[in-house]
Amino acid sequence: MAVPVSQAWTVATYVIGQKLKGRKRFPLVTMLEPLFRCNLACAGCGKIQYPAHILKQELTPEECFKAVEEAGTPMVSIPGGEPLLHPRIDEIVAGLVARKKYVYMCTNALLLKEKLHLFKPSKYLSFSVHLDGQREHHDFSVCREGGYDIAVEGIKAAIAAGFRVTTNTTLFDGADPNSVRAFFDELMEIGVEGVMVAPGYTYEKAPDQKHFLGRARSRRLFRAILSNRKKSWKFNASPMYMEFLMGKREFTCTPWGMPAYSVFGWQKPCYLLQDGYADTFKELIDTTDWSNYGTESGNPKCANCMVHSGYEASGVYYTFGSLRGLLETAMATFFDTYQDRGALDLLNEPVKPMHSFNPLIQIEATVQTTARIDTRVGEGTTV
Ligand code: SF4
Fold first, then answer.
1. pLDDT confidence of residue 208
2. Closest ligand 1 atom, CA of 295?
3. Domains in the chain: boundaries
4. How much is the pLDDT for 140?
5. Mean pLDDT score across all residues of the chain
6. Does domain 5-382 bear CATH number 1.10.10.10?
7. What is this structure's pTM?
8. Mind giving me the DSSP string for 217-286?
9. Which ligand 1 atom lies nearest to the CA of residue 271?
10. How far, in Å, is the centroid of ligand 1 from the Cα of 12?
11. Ligand 1: distance of its center to the CA of 284 in Å?
């Protein structure tokens, strides 16, 4: 198991407790977006396409704590934008850790090494580094040559300093399953705690609309990648969600499982769609017409979606929803190699990587950071 036992226990007792209280819709992870600014401009990302006046806005630590307390989740993910560009990210993380929240700080790690001194290692804090595959795949995906090497340097520095480090990888059409499997080997060698892989979502705002995966192609790709696993690979995702990606089981979406809070408020209905905003988490739950969402709803925006933020909670809630769920998850945890002859054949099929028909486009993102002097480190470090 990739996550510490204390974290698994906290999540298990939280989910069972919510179910015993009879709560129909409860969240698992708060997706806290303290800003949308980024130092990358990835072709598959819909977050940094906002106008400049929105990109300049950021949540205060107090707004972050209020949102997390409202949702009451045991885990908080901090995506963005690039959270390390937030001038008070150290206060936000320290405040969440003090509240005993398990924090995944998502970062492209371009600034990780230089900002590591702002954080203290803790079992509650994990850097979740966005890496989209081996060097050339990642650099292509984030439109930045050299991005992979800087990120890996940041990961190594964080691990050496005693931090928990996980990775998250978004896969698009044209992903090479053999390369992804080799990438897992590289990450295990570097010493990351666990990897998470998921298909990208068709963001309407994303500049590259051509390479998002449909459901059938996603299942085929993930069957090839996640079957015949090596024992050395460790994953940071629910075994049930990974079986869903491999096409071994069906889940309906749980859009309230990972609710997103940003400078706009609580986003309806999920991290990916923007059908309005609510001022409070209760308002989000009470005023969203949830029947309009999920693949089974017929909503075309949900048709191909298999993303982590919609279905990881479905997997976790399935695990703790019945004795059968617990047993199936235990089986998936202990017998996790998934021997599959057909999946081996898929690995031998030719792949046409995206960058063989699309050249890497170097995008220089212009990012304005709010510089301040950090007096805590004694020598006036500008962050
Ligand atoms: S299926 Fe995807 S896009 Fe639709 S509500 Fe669920 S997470 Fe959001």
1. 55
2. 1
3. 5-382
4. 85
5. 88
6. no
7. 0.87
8. HHHHHHHHHHSS--TT--BSS-HHHHHHHTTS------TTSS-EEETTEEESSSSS--S-EESSHHHHHH
9. 8
10. 24
11. 15
